[in-house]
Amino acid sequence: MPSITQFCMREPFEARVADDTLAFQVFEPWYRSLPVSCLAGLDVTLDGEPVAADAVTVEIDGVERTLAECDAAVDDVWFIQDPATVRVKGATPADQVRIGVHMNSRIPYIMVGPEVALPKHTVQEELFTVVNA
Amino acid sequence: MIKQGLTLYSATNEWVTGKYNLESIVAKVAEAGIGPGVEVVGYQSLRGFPELTPGFADWWQNLLARYELVPTCLASNIDVALRSDRLLTDDEMTESLTRQMKVAKELGFGIVRTQIGASPVVLERVAPLAEDWGLKLGMELHAPEGPRTAAILPVRDLYERVDSPALGFIPDFSATMREIPTGLLDTLRAAGLEERFIVSLDEAWKGEGAPFERYGRWAGATEAAGAPKKAIQAAMLVFTMFGREPIESWYDIADRIVHVHGKCYGFDEAGDEPSIDYPALIGILEDIGYDGYISTEWEGHSYLGPDEADSFAEVAKQQALVRRIVGARVG
């Protein structure tokens, strides 16, 4: 198995459906905590189908935001040991679903060009068991 | 005198997967006998960093005292690209580093690790405060940089000009390596890189030129010869993580070394680190009369997963090796 920092989803792959919404956990694919504003991309697919960005939220340390709202959260930090909860509104798969995530984390202290920080792309797809809450 | 300890970054696998909290990982360090020095990456080990909750500083200092451990170095990061629309200004960077220095002071760390991201302007501004607070700022010299590389020479010039006792360097042994770690080569083999390309990779890594030139030449030839693209991309970190700077270049900054990162990746059956010339490095530190800690920094976790190695055991092997070398020289 490669470095743990190559993964944004971990076993057990269990998702929950409640209130017309699918929820599952993601992890920071890095070795240190990053500012919430550095979550630069969070593309989700369900059984291979892309999910519209406005249907996706991410809850970090008790605060639920859209990806666009994360951009402004420069004072909040996603602690490296905490999972975040991704919610997909309107998705109610039964039994099993293949969840794909493409997370782009901006590594804010490693510059790869005069104005460009290192982008860390983490792409993973796993078969989740769905539990109806 | 050389003193020993570790950075908790060595246990990234155990930490990131939540196997330990701060209290239990400190207890584990004491139990494994791999202190007494304890270094932390602020943004890795401390929840809410760089803010501290009331009472945390006392709790932390008591925790270390209970286990007879010593806080050595707080590794800082300046998140210059915190915002998506612009980089931090010099004022904001200064404020960020100052906050992290304050945490170091409150938690009993005498040294703050800085990185190249701390610009000359920022370092010059915070140096007087570091002096007031009794802190040393050590810029980490880590692969692909070294004491003589183009990015570091201006920092040395700044240090000469400002001449503050608070400004120093932290050599990281990754800058001056002798072999590519075998564990990393195994992951490239697993990614589909044939043995002939492993051989040419080793030759390219040991060849002349800047790291990215060496990689570029090897990658171009290897792709043309039909090796899988993913494995070629994965091999880039060989050139960025493992430096080929001359080992004697550490002498250039001898009087500014405030702390040391004892980088290591793996050990053979005799307890030696094949990729890093520990006898030579310890010899240099003794030669210059280095008086401070070597923080063991096992970084095999950059290619080994949580179930593939025991980070604490690897740290212990590095410390045994250092003791063996020091003992042999004394004896």
Automatic annotation (TrEMBL), chain A:
Family matches, as Pfam families: CGDB (PF19906)
InterPro entries in the record: CGDB
Superkingdom, natural source: Bacteria
C-glycoside deglycosidase beta subunit domain residues: 23-109
Keywords: Carbohydrate metabolism, Lyase
Similarity comment text for this entry: Belongs to the C-glycoside deglycosidase beta subunit family.
Name of the protein this chain belongs to: C-deglycosylation enzyme beta subunit
Organism: Demequina litoralis
From TrEMBL, chain B:
Keywords per UniProt: Carbohydrate metabolism
The keyword Metal-binding appears for this protein: no
InterPro entries: IolE/XylAMocC-like, Xyl_isomerase-like_sf, Xyl_isomerase-like_TIM-brl
Organism superkingdom: Bacteria
Alphabetical list of Gene3D superfamilies matching this protein: Divalent-metal-dependent TIM barrel enzymes (3.20.20.150)
Keyword Cytoplasm: no
Sequence ranges assigned to domain Xylose isomerase-like TIM barrel in this UniProt record: 27-309
PANTHER family: HYDROXYPYRUVATE ISOMERASE
Identification of the protein by name: TIM barrel protein
Species, as recorded: Demequina litoralis
Lineage of producing organism: Bacteria, Bacillati, Actinomycetota, Actinomycetes, Micrococcales
